[in-house]
Amino acid sequence: MEREGSGWLLYAWVMLLVAGTFAIIDGIVAIANSSFFTRYGATYVYTNLSAWGWFQLIMGIIAIAAAFSVMQGGEWGRWFGIIVASIQILVQIFWIPIVPFWALTIIVLDMLVIYGLAVYGGRQNA
Fold it and tell me: Helices marked H in the chain — which ranges?
């Protein structure tokens, strides 16, 4: 018998894994060539993009760890996934001036991850 909300949990797992992978790629690109993101005249007021690249790289690694934690199940994985998705939303808010469509897309996907984990994550009801 399939558990209620298993599709949402699978979605949360896959999206954390994919978002983590893309955050790692974005982080590496920003570290290696920060002018890549500013070719179209975008400016970054808060700090240089190399610093945000390192932050993105670390967040990507943490998001992949959260994905595997969600896959394991349990309360710890649920809350770890929710916290990581929430932090990713905050990080993407800072990326809006550079890549607005991409950042807003990731924000929406992370909101759905939070919903899936909040409603269907955690202990399995036997």
Answer: 6-32, 49-72, 74-95, 100-120
Helix (H, G, I), strand (E, B) or coil at 74: helix
Contact in structure between 20 and 62 (CB atoms under 8 Å): yes
What average pLDDT does the structure give for the chain?
A: 82
What is d(CA 88, CA 106) in angstroms, rounded to the nearest whole number? 8
pLDDT given for residue 48 in this prediction: 67
Radius of gyration of the chain (CA): 16
Strand extents, DSSP E, 1-126: none
> Strand pairing partners for 122?
74
Nearest to 59 by CA among 8, 110, 108, 100: 110
pTM, two decimal places = 0.79
